[in-house]
Amino acid sequence: MKAHRSLKWSLACTVAALCSLSLIPSAQVLGQESGITGRVTLSSALPEPEIVSVRSDRDACGSQVLVSLIEGENGGLKNAVVRIVGVEGQPPADFAEPVLDQRGCLFEPRVVLVAPGQQLDVLNSDGIMHNVHTKSKANRGVNKSMPKFLTKITLDFAEPEVITVRCDVHRWMHAVIVVAEHRYYAVTHADGSFMLPSLPDGIYTLEAWHPELGAKETTFEVSGGVAAGVQIVF
């Protein structure tokens, strides 16, 4: 899909980074047979979070909120979207329990995957006024207030694309919804690791994209339905 050939986040800052590629072994994950595995890492230390002073809703937000646009643990990069490029026509698969929560006056997670038409639960765990305001091109926009008594709304999006989300009440609150064009998508964990389903044998292109750091591609070979994961170092 054209919407995913070059993933962009209109609110992202441009960060210059040198990237290098290396292969790492495939692994077993949660007792399942390995598919496409890998890790996205950072070559430098994590940047310091932005400290936002809070003037209202302090019972829920506290007096300060720490906003970390680039996160990770043990050198890994969290919230990078990895996908296989050029496998159009594959049926999408529902991603497990997609939820976008408003907790501690932050969106959690910052990046969430959904399939076209899959229901996304948006929660208000703070018990204060929040607002869910999306910006998209291929899907209808959403601008929904969530007062303290409204603890959940359900959204769905028909077309694959990257959708930005903000809360108009709390200006520092931002997130991304990625509507995936097929099942070969994942979001990296805190240590940067990911796993994708097995593919037929062949040569494929894998892309890793982060809202702040941009995208990087590499090719790899699948043999016997599994492959050594690609490590992308930002």
List keywords for this structure.
globular; mainly beta; five-stranded mixed sheet; 234 residues; single chain; Immunoglobulin-like; four-stranded mixed sheet
Give a written overview of the molecule.
With about 230 residues, the chain is mainly β. It has a domain at about 45-195: Sandwich (Immunoglobulin-like). The chain is built from 1 helix and 19 strands. The protein has one helix at about 60, and strands spanning about 20-25, 35-40, 50-55, 65, 80-85, 100-105, 105-110, 110-115, 120-125, 130-135, 145, 150-155, 160-165, 175-180, 185, 195, 200-210, 215-220, 230-234. It is globular, with a radius of gyration of 18 Å. The two termini are about 25 Å apart.
Summarize the model shown.
By secondary structure, the chain is an all-beta fold. The chain contains one helix and 19 strands. The strands form five sheets. A five-stranded mixed β-sheet has the order 8-14-13-10-11, with no helix packed on it. Strands 1-19-2-16 form a four-stranded mixed β-sheet, with no helix packed on it. It has a four-stranded antiparallel β-sheet with strand order 15-5-17-18, with no helix packed on it.
